[in-house]
Amino acid sequence: MIIDQDGNISIITQEKATLPELVKKIQALYPKFKNNNIIVVLTSLKPLSVQDIVEFLEISNTHRGSKQSFVIVTDKIDVDKTPDEIVVVPTTQEAYDIIEMEEMERDLGF
């Protein structure tokens, strides 16, 4: 797991560990980046299932509940099949775009 910082965005890139292990690591380190928007990059992993994405649902809901963005980046799954409660996009640029839009919505009080 690689953690990079870009302003108020924490970018977590997964390379080897299983997704349940990654979710546990994110939960353990959560206080470190709970005040940042989070992008989880899963592009280096094998094809993913909807269940793999659902592993992140609890932490995503917690983070989004605290008025921060949580976005998963992967091009290995049909985003139309993922739950609406979790944001999944195919590219890192789209993740940045989503965060920018969500920040504007928060600034406007939505």
Question: What is the share of helical residues?
Answer: 40-55%
On the 0 to 100 scale, the average pLDDT is 92
Sheet-strand content, in percent, reads 15-25%
CATH first level: which class? Alpha Beta
| H/E topology pattern | EEHEHHEEH
CATH level-four homologous superfamily name: STAS domain
End-to-end CA span: 33 Å
How large, in whole angstroms, is the Cα Rg? 13 Å
Q: Find the count of extended strands (DSSP E, 2+ residues).
A: 5
What profile does the largest beta sheet have?
5 strands, mixed
What is the global morphology? globular
Low-confidence stretches: none
Q: Tell me the number of helical segments per DSSP (H or I, 4 or more residues long).
A: 4
Q: So, CATH architecture? A: 2-Layer Sandwich
**CATH fold call:** Transcription Regulator spoIIAA
Q: What's the domain count?
A: 1
Strand order of the largest sheet: 1-2-3-4-5
SS class? alpha/beta
Protein name: Ribonuclease Z
Distinctive features:
about 110 residues, alpha/beta, Transcription Regulator spoIIAA, 4 helices, about 40% helix, globular
Verbal overview:
- The structure is a single chain.
- This protein is of the alpha/beta class.
- It has a single domain (2-107), classed as Transcription Regulator spoIIAA (2-Layer Sandwich), CATH 3.30.750.
- The protein is built from 4 helices and 5 strands, in the order ββαβααββα.
- It has helices spanning 19-33, 50-54, 57-65, 92-107, and strands at 2-6, 9-13, 37-41, 70-73, 87-89.
- A 5-stranded mixed β-sheet has the order 1-2-3-4-5.
- Strand 1 (2-6) and strand 2 form a beta hairpin.
- The longest helix has 16 residues, at 92-107.
- The radius of gyration is 13 Å and the shape is globular.
- The mean pLDDT is 92.
- This is Ribonuclease Z.
- It comes from Aestuariibaculum suncheonense.
